[in-house]
Please model this.
Amino acid sequence: MSTTTEPIQGFTDVEDARAQLATCGYLADDRLATTVFLQTRLEKPVLLEGPAGVGKTQLAESLAAATGRRLIRLQCYEGQDETKALYEWDYGKQLLYTQILREKIGQVVEDAADLNEAVERIAKQDSVFFSQRFLAARPLLEAIDSDTPVVLLIDEVDRADEALEAVLLELLAEFQISIPEIGTVTARTMPYVVLTSNNTRDLSAALKRRCLHLFLDYPDAARELEIIRSKETGLADSLAARLVDIVRGIRELELRKAPSISETVDWARTLAVLGVEELTADVLSTTLNVVVKYERDLKRVMEALPRLVDPNAEVPDHLHGHGHGHGHGHSHAPVAEDRDDVDGRAERKAKDQPGRHNAGYYGGAGGTGPRTAPAVSTSQGSRAFPSARKRPV
Ligand SMILES: Nc1ncnc2c1ncn2[C@@H]1O[C@H](COP(=O)(O)OP(=O)(O)O)[C@@H](O)[C@H]1O
Ligand SMILES: [Mg+2]
Model:
């Protein structure tokens, strides 16, 4: 672990942040550009929450490109073990070495009086096998231990269990990882940390407090059009503008999965390849599978298309567009026919059962008194962080 410190390249101001992101193909609005600029100045992590496909992951990628930093990504998932996030010992390599060195190891224990003594002698060699050589760094350690400044993307943190969230919390508080067998690894350059969440569950108040928090929603029509244009889809501007309006109309429908920006881009490309010159309900419905991926959604959109293309067209009564196309705001009674999940709403609901978190988890009342940490297995945290330290609240 060397001690070189690279100068951190930052943005001069908000406008500079926006311009540099744009050069890398990312079109940020005022709020986002400001948040990104602040993150680089305050050295605070950014937490982006919002529906799928609004550019959360892409922001981290573009930030890395714009600042010339390497991107290190931790993709979170349910049941993820902290060893997959922090580090693990390369057991296969250790085994290989012990086999190759069998004779040498034999010599070490050759004249041991009994088994106890033999074990003692082997134990003395621990540091050989639990050394840097056999350490497999996973994304978090890799980011902390990097010689050069990095962007650390902790993607879809809402999928991670609370135990891993607690590990992240500690990491973001200290920017160091303690490996009992080796020592503490401290970040030499501050990573720009971007956390994303698709909002399938609420994150802890402690995690939110540590971060600059931003809710990213679908962009307004003008910015979405700008994004489509920037992707050079080949579709004429006037048609792209119409298409954006139609997609926005589709998002208003009660769908299991609302079309994302990338799907609008794909649709524009598809229509351009087909040489479409007018957006009719017919041509849109034959290509609808590009943007709508569930059978039931497909039916709903098909029915609504004539109205979306021509607002004066007649629409069946049961189709309603009522202004919350991204699946937030009020909730609907679950539809019995299938495992409907409007933008993760059902998933969120299922996860947010009472008792899932302790009282202070969301930072609400009842969080007084000695704070109980989210359930972390005894091995977790203690192996990665100094156990004497107070858990951050
Ligand atoms: N502001 C933006 N500027 C440029 N492209 C964008 C923007 N927002 C979204 N996109 C496009 O949408 C796609 C999906 O974004 P992504 O970051 O994967 O979504 P999320 O992580 O929010 O689910 C990206 O590949 C990118 O092409
Ligand atoms: Mg993503």
The pocket of magnesium ion (ligand 2) is lined by residues 56-57, 155, 196 (CB under 6 Å). The chain is about 40% helix and 10% strand. Residues 1-8, 321-342, 351-393 have pLDDT under 50 and may be disordered. The longest strand covers residues 70-75.
